[in-house]
Specification:
The protein is an alpha+beta fold. It contains 10 helices and 10 strands. Among the domains are: 80 residues, Roll (Flavocytochrome B2, Chain A, domain 1); 75 residues, Flavocytochrome B2, Chain A, domain 1, CATH 3.10.120.
């Protein structure tokens, strides 16, 4: 009788409820988890995407988040940037087209192979870089059709003209490449990075070329690397 009285008493009911909750906890919440544990620190692995836009690349424009475009391919150099032999000069093209700089004599042939481990994907085809003669560039010199040249790169700034904080006239003096705008763009304190990059880099359309052909396609360094890749496949 004492046991029955205990179980039916408030204390007994409390103990029964507590024991039931403990059993439920162990049955439903401490069983084996079939899903493998996740590691939030795992590195992001790019899947060699296609159709990437220059606008998207331009958003990755700092040493902490550094994408560049080389030969119409997009690379994530964020983890490589701190060990770059040239220091933070690598950030100059962060978020933009770095093809010309990458083909500089300072980069050994092996760099063309090593960089493939950092690929994000390729640009959408309609945004691939083109090559323009000075004569062609000079034709685009009006407010309705305005191209400028900065560091051998050609930008169609027509859609940006009216929203330029410095006014339309500040840009028009460089329209059609009549003057090179490199110094004006880089030295102007009103062009803070990365904001200026975010505005300018999506407007990139190509490079200046004396005869309108790709000056990088016949590059001896590129030819050597392509040969090395073919030998590696064999």
């Amino acid at each position: 009788m004492a046991l029955v009285e205990l179980l039916t008493s408030p204390l007994g009911l409390g103990l029964s409820i507590g024991l039931t909750l403990v059993i439920i906890y162990f049955v439903f919440f401490t069983g084996n988890n079939d899903e493998p544990p996740t590691n939030e620190s795992d590195e992001i692995v790019h899947s060699n995407r296609t159709g990437i836009t220059r606008k998207e690349v331009a958003e990755h424009n700092s040493m902490d988040d550094l994408w560049v475009i080389i030969d119409n391919k997009v690379y994530d150099l964020t983890k490589f940037a701190p060990s770059h032999p040239g220091g933070d000069v690598i950030a100059r093209n962060a978020g933009g087209d770095a093809t010309a700089g990458f083909y500089g004599i300072q980069h050994p042939e092996r760099a063309f192979v090593e960089i493939e481990d950092m690929i994000v994907g390729t640009l959408k085809e309609e945004e691939h870089a083109k090559f323009f003669t000075p004569e062609e560039i000079s034709k685009h010199n009006t407010e309705k059709d305005c191209w400028i040249v900065i560091a051998t790169r050609v930008y169609n700034v027509t859609p940006f003209l009216k929203s330029h904080p410095g006014g339309v006239s500040a840009i028009m003096k460089y329209a059609g490449g009549k003057q090179d705008a490199t110094k004006a763009f880089l030295d102007n304190p009103s062009h803070p990075f990365p904001d200026a990059k975010s505005d300018l880099y999506p407007l990139f359309i190509g490079y200046v070329s004396k005869d309108g052909t790709n000056p990088f396609s016949e590059n001896k360094k590129k030819a050597a690397v392509e040969k090395q890749k073919k030998l590696a496949v064999k």
